[in-house]
Task: structure prediction
Amino acid sequence: MKSVIAVGMLLTTTAFNNVYASETQVKTDGGISISILDGTFSFDLGGRLMIDAAFYDEDKNPLGDGTELRRARLELGGTFFKDWGFDLDVDFGAGRGDVKEGVIYYKGFKPTKIIFGHTKEPFSLEWHTSTKHTTFMERALNNVFLGERRIGIRTQTSGQSWSAAAGVFGESFKADVDKEGNEGWSTAARFTLAPLHSKTRSVHLGLAGAYRSPNSDNEVRFRARPESHITGTRYVDTGTITNVSNLGVYGLEAASVFDAFSLQGEYIHTDVSREDGFSDVAFNGWYVYGSWFLTGESRPYKAKNGSFGRIKPKSQKGAWELAARYSVLELNDGPITGGEEKNITLAINWYLNKQTRLLLNYIIVDNDQDANAKGNAVGNDDPNIFQMRFQVDF
Amino acid sequence: MKSVIAVGMLLTTTAFNNVYASETQVKTDGGISISILDGTFSFDLGGRLMIDAAFYDEDKNPLGDGTELRRARLELGGTFFKDWGFDLDVDFGAGRGDVKEGVIYYKGFKPTKIIFGHTKEPFSLEWHTSTKHTTFMERALNNVFLGERRIGIRTQTSGQSWSAAAGVFGESFKADVDKEGNEGWSTAARFTLAPLHSKTRSVHLGLAGAYRSPNSDNEVRFRARPESHITGTRYVDTGTITNVSNLGVYGLEAASVFDAFSLQGEYIHTDVSREDGFSDVAFNGWYVYGSWFLTGESRPYKAKNGSFGRIKPKSQKGAWELAARYSVLELNDGPITGGEEKNITLAINWYLNKQTRLLLNYIIVDNDQDANAKGNAVGNDDPNIFQMRFQVDF
Amino acid sequence: MKSVIAVGMLLTTTAFNNVYASETQVKTDGGISISILDGTFSFDLGGRLMIDAAFYDEDKNPLGDGTELRRARLELGGTFFKDWGFDLDVDFGAGRGDVKEGVIYYKGFKPTKIIFGHTKEPFSLEWHTSTKHTTFMERALNNVFLGERRIGIRTQTSGQSWSAAAGVFGESFKADVDKEGNEGWSTAARFTLAPLHSKTRSVHLGLAGAYRSPNSDNEVRFRARPESHITGTRYVDTGTITNVSNLGVYGLEAASVFDAFSLQGEYIHTDVSREDGFSDVAFNGWYVYGSWFLTGESRPYKAKNGSFGRIKPKSQKGAWELAARYSVLELNDGPITGGEEKNITLAINWYLNKQTRLLLNYIIVDNDQDANAKGNAVGNDDPNIFQMRFQVDF
Result:
């Protein structure tokens, strides 16, 4: 039996009802969103699902065609007492329950926000653009210098055309809590400026720096997959670098949107300082890419946090995007021969609607002789990769 | 019962809000269901919890009495833009976060549906009947030939009295994404016909076939627990079969409901083709069972996808069902001596209400000499098993 | 697509709607709560997030400063057909999906409730007080005798000023389901009495006992962290005690609230009976603590289940609490030299609002010579620990 009912915090006096009546909202666009008293209290439940397949045109090493649930994420968020909020996102793509964003925040000092918990270091334009909205299936090779979310405190603020964020962090929530050694820690800051930003045209400039102290093992390792996640092969790999006293990481960002066209690039440099007479080393990576929406959409820039947001197709037919990226990671320096990789990625993205998209990437990989997965692979391997993703977020 | 909430009546003064007025619904019957504009957008959150206990009347081998959370599942589903939908189910019964159904689908070409993601191969009546509704606690022994959900594409369609489905698949989302070898893949199809189906009487016939190519290890293994999950002992076990080029799997289904009585049976045959001069082998298994509702309910047949659905007790006292199953799995062929197992299961099911049920199973196990868990158990073991389950879904 | 839902005003539309209108509610205070027909059907979705950091003033052993997501929990609960309910809580703090409460219950025989599934043995005041509300970051050392939730059946009832609960249990859902040996089992009962309990003044007395039979390994082990979870060091550790036939556990509880002041204490004694001529051993632990709310709040006592509940700050500024605990665990007896630990904990708690709190604990640890983590640490170690937690529940 289906019978019609009214919803809400029903109180018997009509006057009081009116208060809630005009201010209680329940929404869905595939998820749930509930809000009371203009968001004094609210709750959102959503998620994302990414289904990948990859086919490897192998050169010297086997890479392993296959499929994957790249992300299967449940996302909760809420507001309480107006100024307080939380986010708890858990990913199940790997068959575990990996906490991604896991934070409590205070937003009472608008526009400043103070965030406590498991979150991202303020660093990198591409990293701060949600995987729901990144132009390519995988972030560029130089993302290797950023690693995972960490437990700490981050504060961020913004003006009309700029954003600033800084924080102090421990390690990822997955860092073994049973180790007797001290955890590593880090501090990072990022500043972004948008000298121009309108709905369809924007210029973004960004600057970031981080200082990281490793945990009591004093070790660090950088290694990256060839911008394809289904293979486990990481050609470029420094191996374990010992006697590390600290890391200095620096990043430069630039991006511009001109109607249907956009350009974006980032350079990240990492200094590894070592003790006990071991020589310091430095690595770097950069990428630059261009994107063109055949259907006329513009990549939406969010000056308040210096990142890009959701593409909303203009027509029922959806949006079509062409993109190309050149990406370089250089892990050779002094005694460390981690190898160098240079990738060209060609992309076709079909945004079926504002929540669903199909991504096709073709990656032309160029590894040098040292890019041999620390001897576990043959160097100078130049495979081509075709991979696709079907994605929904709700 | 479901109570439906219509909202927005307050806003009937304006045309805009009027659109939503009579068409937004919020329901709960223990879970959450929200729907807007007759389901143009909707979201459902539910789950299931199954609490098991098993007691083993041991014969030759120890089996290990115990308890278990057989399933503790969170289930999200939604519709967006009318024709698109998703499902994301995660099970926590094993203390991990195992994705079960994880799909995006398009249902715009009614009655045809195209499904992308982590889902079941179209195969087997019992496998396509949800564990919320299966007559016995565990599916029959021959379910061993089906394995797990896989990542792929499935399409299905149906008529008034038939259903057809076919798909192409990779491996389960749990298949190691770091392996350099290629994943296995498979293709499967299923056709079901219901020459007769009314509310209380139906006849079901089904036919299914699958072709599977193993991953680059070229290995396959079939082994099954004695229709009881708490013990880890798998008497029937082919061990690893090497040099496998491909599998051919064939299934026959038949079922009939006559008011409170029903019969169901399935036969599944598997051909294992091997290369490099290794001899081909073939295995098979089948079951047949009968069910009788003392309280007069009928098992609800769903012709549109050839499966059975939820039992709704006729009275406040709930529904009572008696059932018996004979199940056989034959894993002996040529060089492979995986053993043969024959089980008789007697069942009493009490459906306290449409969401809660108590299951009692008594299993009489008859193993042959080769059913020795590849030498890890004594063969010819004939234990009896008493197990029960308390289940809720919401 | 979003739709604004107005509530309550259906009261004014038709009598038909009016029937339901006054009985249906959708709420959020950071989570979701839906209720229909005065709770005949209802669903709640919430959770908790606890972000910890610890700094160790080490004495003889390294302990390892660090951060942690102590709890990141998703909590579902519901009612259906008025008398039935379920709870399914999953914790992701460890990067898995650990089921905590996972139960189906029947509450038709008010005030008696029958609970099936994964739940707590009825034992201990502090253990039955949710970690959302416990006065200190970690429960006292003697909590080691209680262990984890177990799968079983528990029944509880209560009067105006007393509660009683008893149950029979198997093992935790995490106990290996593949073990051939039988699971352990236990039975436990708890009775609490509140000779006095008003809103701001109460006296609690409690008595509990448990009998436990270990699994087929006939082994048991007691070990505890120093009331700090980030270090993995467990100074007090009996090691594996073999040939155990059964355990007898006894507990005494007392607590009192006098306006802003409260006292609480528990003593737990465990007899370990051993067979095959191995000598029986006995261990015990106890704690006592006092708490004072500078801002005048009272710890809310719930006589119906003999536990304490949520602190609701009286003012916008939140509530401030000072507390001190003395805690002892004695694991030395006869051949077992598990060591003795005595901790003093000083606490400052700031309840920012009814859902958010900041906890600061300073722990002065006093270990004896045998408290050496079974030889993995230096005995007689007396570190001091500073730890803090930021917590939200929604």
Q: What stands out?
A: Chain C has one domain: 25-393.
